[in-house]
Amino acid sequence: MxxxxxxxxxxxxxxxxxxxxxxxxxxGFGGLGAALSLAERGAKVILCEALRYPGGCASTFERGGYxxxxxxxxxxxxxxxxxxxxxxxxxxxxVAVDWIDPLVELRTxxxxxxxxxxxxxxxxxxxxxxxxxxxxxxxxxxxxARIADTLWALFDDPALLPPLGAAALLRHAASTPRYAAxxxxxxxxxxxxxxxxGVAEFAPLRQYLDGLCQIxxxxxxxxxxxxxxxxxxxxxxxxxxxxxxGIGALAxxxxxxxxxxxxxxxxxxxxxxxxxxxxxFRAATRSGEIRARQVIANLLPQDLGALLGAAPGALPxxxxxxxxxxxxxxxxxxxxxxxxxxxxxPAAHHLELVQDPRAPxxxxxxxxxxxxxAADEGRAPPGHRTLTVSTHVPLAKQRALPPGQQGDYIGxxxxxxxxxxxxxxxxxxxxxxxxxxxxxxxxxxxxxRAGGAVGGVPRRAGLGHYLSVWPRPVQDGLWMVGDSxxxxxSTLATAIxxxxxxxxxxxxxxxxxxxx
Length: 516
Description:
Helix content: 25-40%
Oligomer: single chain
Mean pLDDT: 90
Radius of gyration: 22 Å
Largest sheet: 8 strands, mixed
Strand content: 15-25%
Distance between the termini: 8 Å
Number of strands: 19
């Protein structure tokens, strides 16, 4: 579809006095995707963000004259044929993508594994390690590629996700034989699939997959729902790159595209309460009241419930989602500035560090490190780089501690993070000139997330994940996007969720059907 003429929209009927057809609360990538998709259709959109910058968990913020990525991560969907790539081209976004290679280097006390953009190179590296069950590794990755190809087709063309039009239904019917390959792994942990190919006990593969699953589907191999995990294994091979200047550059570019299409974007405009009324909703903000016919909330379920003033049990789906989030993760963070060591690559790059592969990949034992590139102007002084270092901490464990002990717990986790960085990335640890720490509580301030929850709901094995693939409102006219609802998890997935929710909202408003 071509972008709509800014301000051009259908007469959508009732409540013509509303300030907006749709109020989007939160400028994370789910909210940005929903706002842009609706603005493309000619809807009158107001996007409110509590922070002074967009992106949520995937933002770039400034402290002390340095600019850091809020979370250490990688971003997919940037290839020309994928969602972000299509938006960059369609809207002429001022975004530069660096196709870095390798993407990640996994380091443990006994393993160095570079992961690049070439699947076969990775398979060959794993199969060539001492004692590797080479035949089983190659067979497993061949099977995984079939699963990933089937599921990534849905990410590359969001029109194939619900709500479905007639054309999408026909395409799904034609793909039925491919979907049959999913049946043996539905509801099963990835570990069982590995065992089927005789590779579950090969330590280097297990370490690689435990780390990858922890940062994508938010749990390890023993628990991860196999189709989700096997799709995530392709993350590095599917349009993954580095947004020059930080992922916040893409978030700002999308926000400005919404404005060029006639939408209104209000930064530092926290929504304080939300109430249903005749013809839609009324939202109280620091700059006044907004009346909207539909609302899309890019919020955690806990935050949305607080805005509504909902009593426990009043909105069962929201309560269930909140419980799922509470069973997930917060983040302990180190934000560092370091002199670039002699011989360091000028490219941005990422390190995955595991101190003890036999212990859980949490609480400072497993670190993901994002290092800015020399071309990332404004991030750090010349000759220096910014590092964002993250590890998962169990939200339930932290919150069960008395308030006086929570700080000690996070301090201990961060001490272990420094130990891991010194042991496995000494070239960076020895050159640190500035450090900023963050607990889940302070991470919440940087990202606007209640309690500092990160990563969405862990995709542990079970069929329940597939019951929520169709966008549906929390209550009439009120929708959720973000990593706590399907498809969740990654920046690309939340943006796709925003697109699909926008499609459902557009139907309610009588707007023309759009594309990804």
